[in-house]
Amino acid sequence: MRLNGDGQFRGKVGQRLVLVDLVRGLAIIGVVFYHLAWDLSFLGIVGVDVGRDPAWIAFARVLAGSFVGLVGVSLVLAHHQGIRWGAFWRRIGILAAAAVAITAATLLTFPQTFIYFGILHAIALFSVLALPFLRAPTWVVMAGAALVFTVPVLFRSPTFNERWLAWIGLGTAPTPSNDFEPLFPWFGLVLLGIVIGRGLLSSRVATKLRWQPQAAFLRFLLTAGRQSLVIYLAHQPILLGILYPVVWIWPPDSTTVDASFLQACRTSCVGTGESSATCQSACDCSARELKRAGLWSLVEQPQLTPDQRNRIDEAAKMCFGAAQRPIPGKGSTTR
Q1: In sequence order, which residues have a C-beta less than 8 Å from that of residue 228 and are 6 or more positions away?
Q2: Please, what sign has the CA dihedral across residues 210, 216, 217, 220?
Q3: pLDDT tens for each residue of 251-273
Q4: Is the peptide bond before 185 cis (omega within 30 degrees of 0)?
Q5: pLDDT at residue 229 in the model
Q6: In this structure, is residue 335 part of a structural domain?
Q7: Rounded Cα–Cα distance for residues 214 and 217 (Å)
Q8: Which residue range(s) make up the domain with 282?
Q9: Which end of the chain is least crowded, N or C, by CB within 10 Å?
């Protein structure tokens, strides 16, 4: 039995270890589902603010964490008998080219929040940084993971807010991006993946999973997992290519965006201890002020820059009665 260059276990009859493909397939299907919901929210077709809803945010992080963790698992499966440098650098080259393409595409479509260090950037860099840990003792790998998770809790600085340093992950308010998985703490998941990969090999789980599932859904997940990069690169252009004409022909009711803003604003306001009636009045007033000041278009943006957030706060502060009080809602930092 051996491992091929893609990190998949092969037996005498050429069967693959399907565990990694199944998990990756499930994750990429989740990504497509999340981005569909995000697109519907961004275009005003639904009233849920997917980009700021806690449940959707948690879902997105679980998906990203799955992909990052699988980096460590795959590295162990692919290179535990020695690093195959040719296959490794080919993969890094493909990932780097795809990451550059994502940056360029989002820079054109979302210039304020383009992806400068997203999941593909992270996977490419983390794969290289993880190489020394493939030969390190497991306790060293675990200690490294603990360190990566701990550092951003103990230390942050505004110095790391700018894009050229934000990828490190130690900023206090990094430049907004539609996808952001910085070194700290996300690299810690790669190290945990290495430990999990070693566990799969040492427990001989790999030899027990040399099977080809017959169920249609599982075969679908396998195919999706093996083509995850292609699906990742293609699904958003396809989704937006379908949804934009729909919105152009049947524009969504503007009340959908109003409802999304008001819901987020009231929820945040009530969370500060204000009464429901006070929050409703203040948020209704904020919506009117933003429209009067010509700032309503910012409400529809998936993320706001600090300057945009300040402009929204300045326009709405009168509705909350105190200039120094954070403004609850879409552009606020109130928790």
Answers
A1: 24, 25, 27, 28
A2: positive
A3: 766 555 566 677 777 777 777 77
A4: yes
A5: 95
A6: no
A7: 9
A8: 254-320
A9: C
